[in-house]
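Exercise 7 asks you to align residues with tokens for two separate proteins.
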Amino acid sequence: MSQPSGIGARVRTLRRREGLSQVSLAKVLGVSASYVNLIEHDRRRLPADLMFRLADALHVDVREFATDEVGTLRSELMAVLDHPVFEGTDVRAIDVKELAQQQPDIARALVLLYRRWRSSEEALEKLGSLVVGGAGLAAEATRLPSEEVNDLVQRNLNYFPDVEAAAEAMWRRHKLGVPVLFEALERMLRKDHDVVVRIARGPDAGLIRRFDPERRELVLAETAAPRSWHFQMAHQLGLLTLGDVLDRVSADPQLTTDASRRMCRMVLANYFAGALLMPYEPLLVAAEEVRYDVELLGHRFRTSFEQVCHRLTSLRRPDRPGVPFHFVKTDTAGNVSKRFSGSGIAFAPFSGGCPRWNVCTAFQHAGRIRTQLSEMPDGSVYFCLARSLEKRHGGYRSPESVYAVGIGCRVEHAHRVVYADGLDLSRAEVVPIGTSCRVCDRLECEQRAFPSIRHPLSLDENTRRVAFYGMSKD
């Protein structure tokens, strides 16, 4: 059976990096050289036992062979081609897929080149506006810290074993339990770190958590829900106890600014908080028991819907993984503030998403969980669920934030998820979606906002179609 994931190209790259021939690698693995050749050309699947032996032989983590990277890289390349500068070029989706699979290093270099170019363009625009305004200040061409940190999380498949181990050890040592969770966390901060927890009374300009290192005081807002108190206390414990781990991960050379490194520490502290409140093994057992019912898991661990969704995407331990979910968070304007592709689904890192996707339509059904079988233009199908959420940090007059979160998996995993019950998983109910209009091949979509850059416009003033941007496939 063929293997369309592009693992072969990664095996070949890592083998060459180690200076090994196919024959020498085959001897280490105890297989034939022809079998290694077939794996490297994606003509044989890589069994789990052989994958672990291969990781040892090539001195890499087994996550190097995860299948999600190719899909993410493909979506980034497609998003690069979304830019108007490439309008009129004849690049097919299959060509992009083959480049991501067979030449991942070149594909990553092209994405990096595009990002540097866009950063330079934006810096020049900013500099021009400043000069026109009389400020005459220079602008620095850098990527946003959130983009760099998102890439780091994606490269690690949102799984950080050192953070997991530290959280589980603390959970067991202090015998944390749901009924007395606040008292237990408060006691840990007070006894182990000499930190006093205080609940601030009244509104405080959006305060959720504030730590004063001089006074050793952690202030929590009374307007936040108890589950938010738990999360913020656990977050603070992560900052106080995991300094070496946070520093090591944040020293990643692809985090190029102090702001990126600080954001990375905060993201990892959030990861630790989720792992402490929802330890890996107890959560996985519970998730399999209730078939990934997010609301039930939230009740069981006293955590929010969004916190559970986040945590489910990190169940990626190689020897005991959960369902490989993706995660996305968006506001009503379509701005994606968080994304992680654990399922292999393609996101649009440089442009807007698809209005047909249920995470975008969730706002039409406030507070209700909406499910969807979503088919991408390449034919891959995902089971997705989404829900709109509301937050208000304060009293009656405080502003309300509305956003939607969505998770999903490849359709072959959908039977493990309770929300898929009653759906026809044979694709009869599939909804065609895309990454973004500019690179989507669905030419007659009535939701199309822009013409595709890969198909010439075919406008006829005497004809009006449902899709305004009528395009020729010739």
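Second protein for Exercise 7:
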Amino acid sequence: MEIAECITSEQVEAAWPVIAQLRQGIAQSTLEQRLASARPEGYRLFAALQDGRVVGAIGFRLLHDLASGRSLYIDDLVVDEGERGRDIGRALMTFAEEAATGAGCEAIRLTSAMFREGAHAFYERLGFARPGYVFKKELVPPSSA
């Protein structure tokens, strides 16, 4: 298995069917717009490739804040539904941990939806703890006049 960064529109398009399994309800065009906005802020998207086919993806960025110091924040992690249980997720998380260590991070952080209990068990097997809750309030963007 190979892990490669998705930089070109062709690479993002190849990863889309797998990413859509995690980001249901987001159109491919919206994903591309969000990637274009997130990349200047340090977001990077990587695909796990098996025989040239995308079987998983991980997206992360480096942060520095008072709570955790320098950390790697995983925004997205998904393994193709037909490929789960084959250590692809573990390989992607190991890749992220190596990137975090190489960048001098003190921690790796992520958020997972409450209903993703299988994912929570997976993260705990990898040594992650649940230190708190994430709160979110949706906002209506101001109209452009």
